[in-house]
Amino acid sequence: MTQTFDAIVIGAGQAGPSLAGRLTAAGMQVALIERHLFGGTCVNTGCMPTKTLVASAYAAHLARRGAEYGIASEGPIGIDMQRVKARADTVSTNARTNVEKWLRGMDGLTVIKGHARFKGPDVVQVGESLLTAPRIFINVGGRANVPDMPGVDTVDYLTNTSILKLDTVPRHLIVIGGSYIGLEFAQMYRRFGAEVTVVEMAPRLIAREDEDVSEAVREILTDEGITVRPSAMCIGFKPHADGVAVDVDCTSGAPMVVGSHVLLAVGRRPNTDDLGLDQAGVAVDARGYIAVDDTLATNVAGIWALGDCNGRGAFTHTAYNDYEIAAANLLDGDSRRVSERLLGYALYIDPPLGRVGLTETEALKSGRKILVSKRPMTRVGRAIERGETKGFIKIVADADSKQILGAAVLGVTGDEVIHGILNMMNARAAYPTLQWAVPVHPTVSELIPTLLGDLQPVN
């Protein structure tokens, strides 16, 4: 017997639950299917547990620096990793429980636990049950990519999910991948007391960023005792009496590193390979991401894909924005497009990197006449007062239109400061509007008008 609904939502990540709320509020009967944990990556294995761990690592780092602030302490700082883990687990569990409670109490929503598979363009099977609806929304997220590197199947390794289960500090953590996820865990575990080596195939860390940003991040990490091994072109693994031996082919340094633990942080892949998408005729690209148009619709009428599984964004906030776009178009008579989205994001090392828009390199390649302004955090009063002066602020603008094209804030509260610039860009306001604002003192944001007044041509 087939159950009929007005809409089916597959996945309870960042987009699915809120969309279910809007659809049911519009009077629809909706089924939401979740096969594992409510809340998706962010709540369970992403933002919430990892940023909780980052906070614990920051507390340990600050405690070690107590003397710099005139705070006396006796003896070394101790790390109770079981309590650190328990704190992160509690944050995730509470959030997950609240999401599930909200959904199960939602009028007009039927919550189904199980693995959804398409049986046709408007039919989904969960266990022995068949569900049908004229509107189906896929919000199944992604998982860690495990590359086919030599010997990877002969050793034990960690991913961003399994590393959260650790309740002891590794003796030596080798992180494969010098980008956002890998660097956050690298600094975190260094602050917990582990020896840490970061192995990156590219010549520098976070290669999508400008070279000055990449170099500043490297200095931040190496100053804390993290070893960075770039240009590692022949990564391989084999068991070792002391854990895992990792082969690297670098421009300098030992050809092999031995660690107690290895974390693979080399990208993500979508959870689309076991949904029966072929049964519905839904197209995917070579990497398995569901192909969508500018409104998040797939090639099959009545099916949309939201969040990480569509390859149009890899963040909690882009997944949520996918929900907003879908709801606005379907329920509000609006016309919103993914291509209109202004992407901001952050790297949560300490100090954090806040980013929005084009890098300086990208802006130069675009052929525009550009203006650039840059100021080190050593000249920012708030950073000096806090004793956290690493990093810099950089703004890139279009000389002709006077539009801000992008910015990087690598420094204390950089992940918050970036929003003032993001908001100006989103409003498409010319930079003099922000230049003549009167910001609050003493803050990091107060330097933004000063930087705008110092914009200089670079081409």
UniProtKB/TrEMBL annotation:
PROSITE patterns for the chain: PYRIDINE_REDOX_1 (PS00076)
Keywords: Disulfide bond, FAD, Flavoprotein, NADP, Oxidoreductase, Plasmid, Redox-active center
InterPro entries for this protein: FAD/NAD-bd_sf (IPR036188), FAD/NAD-binding_dom (IPR023753), FAD/NAD-linked_Rdtase_dimer_sf (IPR016156), Pyr_nuc-diS_OxRdtase (IPR001100), Pyr_nucl-diS_OxRdtase_dimer (IPR004099), Pyr_OxRdtase_I_AS (IPR012999)
Domain (Pyridine nucleotide-disulphide oxidoreductase dimerisation): residue spans on this chain: 346-450
This protein's record includes keyword Ribonucleoprotein: no
Cofactor: FAD
The keyword Flavoprotein is assigned to this record: yes
Pfam hit, one: Pyr_redox_dim
Residue ranges of domain FAD/NAD(P)-binding in the record: 6-321
Superkingdom classification of source: Bacteria
SUPFAM superfamilies reported in the protein's UniProt record: FAD/NAD(P)-binding domain (SSF51905), FAD/NAD-linked reductases, dimerisation (C-terminal) domain (SSF55424)
Family: Belongs to the class-I pyridine nucleotide-disulfide oxidoreductase family.
Protein name: FAD-containing oxidoreductase
Organism: Microvirga terrae
Origin organism lineage: Bacteria, Pseudomonadati, Pseudomonadota, Alphaproteobacteria, Hyphomicrobiales
